[in-house]
């Protein structure tokens, strides 16, 4: 990983759940620091320290992943943070990776039937076809699969 030019760096930056979650809040729309903190609390049911949020936003801004605009909120000027195009791309990539991780965690033995394409969570049926172990949901699918293969061969 260290010789990958940029991503390793970003991984260090987003190495924990809080930072990851801050990004998901920003991904949904622009927000000021305080609203990030309160949305975080509402959804994660956990406090996030401003001493984590603000430096993180600043780091993201230094990397060109976030920009801010000043807007008056009540009597004060507040910084409204927003993801840049690059920041959004980074998030999309992260979310995909995260989704894959979750899928791996909750679907450890999932495979797809080679004949009907349905997802098989447990059991199923495996058969070696043309020297390759092939997975099916049931032996009927395995039979149909073999028949299809045979007829394809015959028509050639
Ligand atoms: Zn099947």
Description:
With 156 residues, this protein is of the alpha+beta class. It has two domains: 7-106, Winged helix-like DNA-binding domain superfamily/Winged helix DNA-binding domain (Arc Repressor Mutant, subunit A, Orthogonal Bundle), CATH 1.10.10.10; 111-155, no CATH class. It is 53% helix and 21% strand. It has six helices and seven strands. It has helices at residues 7-13, 17-28, 33-44, 50-62, 85-106, 139-155, and strands at 31-32, 66-73, 76-83, 111-112, 119-120, 125-129, 132-136. Strands 1-3-2 form a three-stranded antiparallel beta sheet. Strands 4-5 form a two-stranded antiparallel ribbon. A hairpin with a 6-residue loop joins strand 4 (111-112) and strand 5 (119-120). Helix 2 (17-28) crosses helix 3 and helix 3 packs across helix 4 (50-62). The longest helix is centred in the middle third of the chain and has 22 residues, at 85-106. The chain is elongated. It starts with 6 loop residues before the first helix and ends with a helix. The model is unreliable at 1-8 (pLDDT under 50). It binds zinc ion. Zinc ion (ZN) binds at residues 113, 115-116, 118, 136-138, 141.
* Order of secondary-structure elements: HHEHHEEHEEEEH
E-strand count: 7
Beta content comes to 15-25%
Amino- and carboxy-terminal Cα gap: 47 Å
Instruction: Give the integer mean of the pLDDT values.
Output: 84
Percent helix: 40-55%
Number of helices: 6
Task: Label the overall shape.
Answer: elongated
CATH class of the largest domain: Mainly Alpha
Which structural class should the secondary elements be placed in?
alpha+beta
| CATH topology group of the largest domain | Arc Repressor Mutant, subunit A
**Any guess at the CATH architecture of the largest domain?**
Orthogonal Bundle
Looking at CATH, the homologous superfamily of the largest domain is Winged helix-like DNA-binding domain superfamily/Winged helix DNA-binding domain
């Amino acid at each position: 990983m260290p010789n990958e030019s940029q991503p390793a760096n970003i991984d260090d930056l987003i190495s924990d759940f809080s930072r990851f979650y801050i990004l998901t809040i920003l991904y949904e729309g622009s927000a000021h620091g305080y609203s990030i903190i309160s949305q975080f609390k509402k959804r994660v049911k956990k406090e996030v320290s401003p001493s984590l949020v603000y430096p993180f936003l600043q780091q993201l801004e230094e990397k060109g992943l976030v920009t801010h605009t000043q807007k008056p909120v009540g009597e004060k000027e507040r910084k409204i943070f927003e993801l840049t195009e690059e920041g959004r791309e980074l998030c999309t990539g992260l979310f995909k990776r995260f989704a894959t991780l979750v899928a791996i965690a909750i679907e450890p033995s999932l495979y797809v039937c080679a004949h009907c394409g349905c997802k098989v969570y447990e059991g199923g049926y495996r058969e070696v076809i043309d020297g390759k172990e092939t997975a099916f949901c049931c032996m009927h699918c395995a039979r149909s699969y073999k028949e299809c293969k045979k007829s394809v061969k015959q028509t050639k």
